[in-house]
Design a protein that fits this description.
alpha/beta; five-stranded mixed sheet
Length: about 270
């Protein structure tokens, strides 16, 4: 579904059914916000927009683009007289109600005229022009790396409590920790919601955890700058076994223990 067609479902918007029609209905200078998956989808959307935009117009990328792509894109668009802004966006599905945290990168002259848009979308204090081209998605990338580590810590803590000899109300504990505890957070609040909605055993949820790329990019950036980031790195690596039906590495470990020590192995 293109951005133009999507506009037909937003209350108060003027419907458009193609990129060309969308651009023709915007007042000049035009600002077009693209928010599709990073990579090929974003590249294709921007390529199509370039067929219709004119000098002085601006493209805002609100997806999770790699900041290196932002730097390249901004330079390419500048040669055509077009502005480019990268808007790192955090808030998830709840952003519709409470607003989005916006981490924006781009040239000051391009970003400043758009600030009323960003401030209307973000909650109070939830918008910041963090730097030049790519900086918005760079900050969002690190944000998501931190998010990986926080989520993994909560997951491990609740698994320990789930495995204990006590019959613990995990949803109640999540709520309890939200009241003044030093580990309170929105992620913890969401954990409590998940336990209450699905039950402590989470029977309808498969333990398959994807990653959308930002964690990997954060780790690569840490390596490029010789910054130790063991927690974020391990939180990413921990997701990989969740995608395996049967770990080949675990089979090798079991076979080795059997070979050198005669330890029993389980067979299929």
């Amino acid at each position: 579904m293109s951005a133009a067609v999507f506009l037909t479902s937003i209350s108060g918007a003027t419907p458009s059914f193609s990129i060309a029609e969308l651009v023709s209905k915007l007042e000049k200078p035009r600002a077009v916000w693209v928010m599709v998956p990073a990579g090929d989808a974003t590249e294709a959307q921007i390529a199509e927009l370039l067929e219709h935009l004119e000098q002085g117009d601006t493209i805002i990328d609100g997806g999770n683009t790699n900041f290196h792509d932002d730097v390249r894109r901004q330079a390419e668009l500048a040669t055509k007289g077009l502005g480019y802004v990268d808007a790192g966006t955090s808030g998830g599905v709840w952003g519709l109600k409470v607003g989005y945290c916006l981490m924006v990168g781009g040239e000051e002259a391009v970003v400043q005229p758009l600030e009323p848009i960003f401030k209307s979308l973000a909650p109070e204090g939830g918008y910041l022009h963090v730097g030049g081209p790519g900086a918005g998605h760079y900050v969002k990338m690190v944000h998501n790396g931190i998010e990986y580590g926080l989520m993994q810590a909560y997951a491990e803590g609740f698994e320990i409590m789930h495995a204990s000899d006590y019959k613990l109300d995990l949803g109640g504990i999540a709520d309890l920790w939200m009241q003044g505890s030093v580990v309170r957070s929105w992620l913890l609040e969401l954990a409590g919601r998940a336990f209450k909605a699905n039950g402590p055993e989470l029977p309808h949820i498969k333990g398959f955890v994807e990653d959308s790329g930002e964690g990997r990019w954060t780790i690569q950036e840490a390596m490029d700058h010789d910054v130790p980031a063991p927690i974020i790195t391990l939180s990413l690596l921990t997701r990989f076994p969740s995608r395996q039906d049967d770990s080949y590495g675990a089979k090798v470990l079991a076979a080795l223990r059997n070979e050198f020590g005669g330890h029993a192995v389980k067979t299929e």
